[in-house]
Amino acid sequence: MGKGDKKTKRGKIAINSYGKLRPKRKKFKVSPQKIKNPQEKEPV
To answer: What is the maximum span of the chain, computed from C-alpha positions, in angstroms?
Structure first.
């Protein structure tokens, strides 16, 4: 296990590939939308 192992992060870096252990950086982050709580009353 190390630089020659294709299943480790260090191995992915050595062979310049990506996968589950070394995901590519996302350009944009998606933020979750706020869901209104039905128990809370809206201000009138």
So the answer is: 65
